[in-house]
Amino acid sequence: KAKRKAIIAGNWKMNKTASEAAVLVDELVPAVQDAGCEVVICTPYTDLVTAVEKTKGTNIHVGAENVHFEKSGAFTGEISADMLVDLGVEYVIVGHSERRQYFAETDQTVNKRALAALNAGLKVIICVGESLQQREEGVTEELVRMQTKIALRDVTAEQMANVVIAYEPIWAIGTGKTATADQAEEVCGQIRKVIGEVYGEAVAEATTVQYGGSMNAKNCEELLSKKDVDGGLIGGASLKAPDFAVIVNAAT
Ligand code: PEP
């Protein structure tokens, strides 16, 4: 395996009230304390204060699930990068397929969000991935290349130290249908190749590229054994402390 540090990040999606989050974080803290990888939990906005407070002094890092691209102003209902930073939030997911699918986000708005987050000092987990139809039409590589390139437009080589790319085939998210380890490895490798074309080999080799899509306690080991798969973005299985701990402990 490469020298890159694996990152296992939970994506809680729209689950857990703040009171429920407190219970889950209390279970997670001891369960993942011996992790050999970086551990992140991305929670709903309303859980962030609780998550940051309860993970102080632990190895768990806290992230949000989205961020708006403007600094401040008349954007009712939105949350800025500075607001997240001020809370002690370190990470943010951008471009999750559910945001693209249900909230009309595009490669362009994903790029704007990534830039706003990076410029505010956040680490970003940028999600890319194809639909089943796109895979069947044979355009996965082209699509993922385009999504990655556009998402990273104007991101500097220095800022790439704070960028994680998550390859998440849409057909594998929340479906129980995981990509095979070879499929995950192939596309994660293609993403690393694009990064190399834009930023050079050293940046490509240093960038964490995760797989996401129905990764669980049973299938994590095989997926994580692949050389270009540097961890995972975990939805459903991140809501159960014992399952999340198994995945965390499988990653180094
Ligand atoms: C996700 O939402 O990022 C995800 C990978 O979900 P799940 O693990 O539930 O497929």
State the gist of this model:
The longest helix has 19 residues. By secondary structure, the protein is α/β, with parallel strands linked by helices.
What is the secondary structure topology, with strand pairs?
Elements: E1 7-11, H1 18-31, E2 38-43, H2 48-55, E3 60-64, H3 81-87, E4 91-94, H4 97-102, H5 107-119, E5 123-128, H6 132-136, H7 140-151, E6 163-167, H8 181-199, H9 201-206, E7 208-212, H10 220-224, E8 231-234, H11 241-250
Parallel strand pairs: 1-2, 1-8, 2-3, 3-4, 4-5, 5-6, 6-7, 7-8
Active site: 96, 168
Pfam family, one: TIM
Organism: Faecalibacterium wellingii
What would you say this structure looks like, in words?
It is a single chain. This protein has 252 residues and is α/β, with parallel strands linked by helices. The protein has one domain: Aldolase class I (TIM Barrel). It has eleven helices and eight strands. An eight-stranded parallel beta barrel has the order 1-2-3-4-5-6-7-8, surrounded by five helices. α1 runs parallel beside α2 and α1 packs across α11. The longest helix is centred in the C-terminal third of the chain and has 19 residues. It is globular, with a radius of gyration of 17 Å. The N and C termini lie close together (9 Å). The mean pLDDT is 97. Bound molecules: phosphoenolpyruvate. Phosphoenolpyruvate (PEP) binds next to β8.
